[in-house]
Amino acid sequence: MRPTRQLPTMISTALSYTRSVRKLSVFLAKPLGSDECLELTRHRLQTREPRFLESMRRLVYAIPTSPYMRLLQLAGCEYRDLELMISQRGLERTLEALYQAGVYLSFEELVGTKEVFRGTHAVPFTFRDLDHPLLLGPLHDRSSGSRSRGRPVSISFEDLAERDAPTRFWAMEALGASAMLPIIWRSGFPVGGLLHWLSLARLRRPPVRWFSTSSPEYAYGGKSRHLIAAARLLARRQGWWLPAPEFITLSQADIVLDAVLEASRRQAGCIVITKPSFAVRLAALARQRGVSLHRVCFETANEPLTPGKAEEIRASGARVGSIYGFHEGGMVGVPCGHPVEPDDMHFVADCYGLIQRTREYAGVPMRSFMFTTLLASARKILLNVEIDDFGLFEPRRCGCPLDDLGFRYHLANVRSFTKLTGEGVTVVGTNCVHIIEEVLPKTFGGQSIDYQLLEVEDQDHLTRLLLLVSPRLGPLDEQAVRTRFISTLDAQERGGIPLWRQAETIQVVRQDPVHTAGGKLFPFHTIALSEWQKVVERPGAFTIRA
To answer: Does residue 278 lie in a domain region?
Structure first.
């Protein structure tokens, strides 16, 4: 018999689940059609400034514990001052002025590696302080951690209904995939696929299959399992069907391809919601079989859609577009229907404000993104919050459906400063520093400068992580080095490392670490740094491209 002291916890859990199922029922009972998406998005584009002010009034100025409240006080900006600035300058110029006045959070401040100081004033801050103060989400995700197993993000059904579902609609519309049958193939179960699963359900365009490469023993937790079961039961009662997740390994990609080919022969074709590396695998497998994917469209996310990956996917006959998002904010960029770059995307200006900050990385000036949330249901309240990404952000008319709608700003060539990605799984580079500079030298000899983690794209256009080990250390058991690195990293990261074992994403290469053009040596080296600095071209299967 359970101890009596556990009874309150059990009751609280039961009540929380009951509330979640009630909200889920409401979420699924109100489908979002194309006319509603059009009306909603147009209205939000026309009301960006008043919605920003209302969000600031309710979620910042009315919350004394908000870190933004303290930053605004230090900047001498009361609510009436903000109203005046908006009326005179508009949203983006107001955000620029607030940034100049110290109202922002840098990436280092966001992840907790740097304390928040403005002048001599400290601003106490934790990541949870950015949680929505009025909404508690039943879905939970974690961003890539800088000190631990990631930063927790709570996602509400209100946010799914107001942001994810309409944005998902426009992504499919831009790709000409509105009538296609969706298939999901993702890692990171459940949230990695669950948000897409639920958003498609809201649009009444449920996926025909949902594949996940995550282990069900690891990922299929109690609350997620119950919510998925509840959603499937509610859908059946309403007369339609939602698929259960199917767990496969990367070596079972044939199962996914069979499902894609079957779906592509029905209706207008098949849209596969996946990651660039997964799409490359399917494209290569289709060519091996001698079949065309001309009735297939890939919508990719979680890693850059590089020119090499896009070329490999299109060679199979398929079309491909890129989605851009981040854990704290969600989807912020959707594919352009007339792209000029592989990852040409429209910035969803109805949901966010965006300014850029110039910062140096490895001696090179880059323009990082700083986001501000405009939706009342936002999963995290963001006001000029810098994330670990940079890229092109510019106004441009393209003539695609999203341009006609009013999404006039484009994002492209989006990369990360310090995150490395393999098979769509992201790891913070700084988490590797301890392993590179201390663990490996102590275990296998040498110094910190004898090891380096290098992000590259191989000859098959799959993103790999090369663990460079200097030849001067002499003979080593390379498999032991790889195992030691992965096991130590696995203790810090959450959820993706088993996938790397499946894909053999991390490979040991006996080569001296790579220096930057300025002669600097970093413990980890991203594709982004290579592209921007044109660091090195070396022969062999792995090439750092400019």
So the answer is: yes
Are residue 413 and residue 496 in the same domain, yes or no? no
Inform me whether the pLDDT recorded for 424 exceeds 50: no
- Tens-place pLDDT, residues 437-487: 789 999 999 877 788 888 777 777 777 788 899 998 999 999 999 888 888
Does residue 494 share a domain with residue 402? no
For 320, the enclosing helix (H) or strand (E) is: strand 319-322
Identify the weakest region by mean pLDDT among 119-133, 202-216, 267-281, 530-544: 530-544
- Residue appearing with tokens 């005046």: 84
Q: Whole-angstrom Cα distance, residue 321 to residue 319?
A: 7
Which DSSP helix (H) or strand (E) runs through 95? helix 91-100
Domain region containing 487: 425-533
What is the 8-class DSSP label of residue 252?
A: G
The answer to whether residue 274 sits within a structural domain is: yes
Residues 396 and 465 placed together within one structural domain of the fold = no
CB 350 within 8 A of CB 332: no
Are 297 and 175 spatial neighbours (Cβ–Cβ below 8 Å)? yes
Confidence band for 418, pLDDT divided at 50, 70 and 90: low
| Beta-carbon count within 10 A of 302 CB | 21
- Give the whole-angstrom CA distance, residue 210 versus residue 197: 8
185 close to 256: Cβ distance less than 8 angstroms: yes
| Domain finish residue from 382, 417, 452 | 417
> Which pLDDT score, from 0 to 100, does residue 222 have?
59
Within a domain: 540:
no
CB atoms under 10 Å from CB of 359, counted, come to 15
Are the beta carbons of 250 and 281 closer than 8 angstroms?
yes
Quote the distance between the C-alpha of residue 288 and its chain's center. 31
DSSP SS3 for 238: coil
Clarify whether residues 436 and 327 are in a common domain. no
Strands (E), 448-496: 451-457, 463-469
Across residues 536-543, what is the average pLDDT?
34
Identify whether residues 518 and 436 lie together within a single domain. Answer: yes
- 375 in a structural domain: no
- pTM of the predicted model over 0.85: no
- Determine contact, residues 329/378, Cβ cutoff 8 Å: yes
- Given a cut of 50, whether residue 187 has pLDDT beyond it is yes
pLDDT in the model for residue 536: 33
Q: What's the total number of domains in the chain?
A: 2
Maximum CA extent, the chain: 69
Residues 398 and 279 in one domain: yes
In order, the DSSP letters of 388-413 are EEEEEEEE----SHHHHHT--EEEEE
Q: How far, in Å, CA of 179 to CA of 159, rounded? A: 25
Region for residue 393 given its phi and psi (left: phi exceeds 0; alpha: psi -120 to 50; beta: otherwise):
beta
Tell me, yes or no, whether 406 and 465 share the same domain.
no
**Residues forming a β-bridge with 99:** none
CA distances from 351 to 44, 244, 329 (A): 8, 30, 10
Bridge partners (DSSP) listed for residue 510: 469
Verify that 342 and 443 share a domain, yes or no: no
CATH of the domain at 434: 3.30.300
Task: Tell me: pLDDT of 43 over 80.
Answer: yes
